[in-house]
Amino acid sequence: MNDLVLASAVSPFRQRLIDDMSMRRFSRETQRNYIRDVGRFATFLGRSPHTATAEDIRRFQLDQQETGVPVPTMNSIVAALRFFFTHTLDRPDFARKLVRTAHARKIPVVLSQDEVKRLLDATTCLKHQAALSVAYGSGLRVAEVSALKVSDIDSKRMLLRIERGKGGRYRNAMLPEGLLVLLREWWRAGRQHGVMQADGWLFPGQNASVPISTRQLHRVVVQAAEAADIVKRVGPHTLRHSFATHLLEDGVDIRVIQALLGHAKLNTTAFYTQVATKTMRAVTSPLDKLALMSPSGATSDG
Fold this sequence. Notes:
CB; DNA recombination; Tyrosine_recombinase_XerCD; DNA_brk_join_enz; three-stranded antiparallel β-sheet; globular; 14 helices
C-alpha cells in the first residue's frame, strides 16, 4: 500500500486524534509526537491503526525491541498509542495490551552556577540569551520557552503564565527580577527591529508569526556551551535540571521546587537529590559524630 493510500485511510482517525488532544489542551509538541508515534504503528501495520488487533500490538512491540528502539522512545510510543486507543477509538482493552519497559533513569547533567553564567554570556544575540535565561531562571521546559507569548509575562505578580505545559497543564512559573530586566531589554530591541508584537510570541522564529523552534533552541545551547568551553553534554533541559538542583542546594523546600517545575509527582522532583552535591556535602555523617577513642591501654598492632 503506498503512502498516499495509507494517509487517506487513516485521515479521519488522525483528525479525531488531533481533536481529542486539542480538547485536552495538549501542547503543540505533544500533539506532534503523538501523531508521529501513531503513524509509526500505522506504517508497521501497512493499514489504518483502527483495524489493529491485540496480536498486531504484540508484534509491533516485539519488533521495536528486536530492532533496538531506545527504551524512552518505546515508552513514548506506548503513551501515544494508549491515548489513541483509549480516547480516539474507545478501545481501552487494547490500551491495556501495551507494555511499558522499565529502565534505569540516568542522573541528569547539571552545570555549576559558574558554568551557567559562562554559557549565557557565550550566546550570540540578545534573543538567545533571554530565551536561555528563561529556561534557567524560571526552570521551564524547552517547549514551554518556545510557546511563551509576550502576554504571558505578569510583571505585577512577577510570574510567567505557562498555558500548556506537559500534559496540557496550566501553571505559574517564577519570574526573577533580573530576568524581567533582561526580557524588557529584549522587548525594546525586538520592537526596534520590528519582530515583536504585544500579542505575539516572546521569542519569535525567523518568521515572526511562529515561535522559535525547540530544535533551534537546542542548537543555541550546544553552540553556546562549545563557545564557553563547557565539555559536558548539554541541551536546553540541562538548564532546567540546573535550576532545580541549585534551588535544592540553596535549601528551598522540595515541594516548592515541585510546584515551580510543574511535576505531577514528588518522586520526580526528589530525583534531584542525587545530583545536589552541595546538599550532600552539608550532611554530617553519623560516623563523624562518634567519639572514636582507643580503649585505655590498647596497643596498636603495628
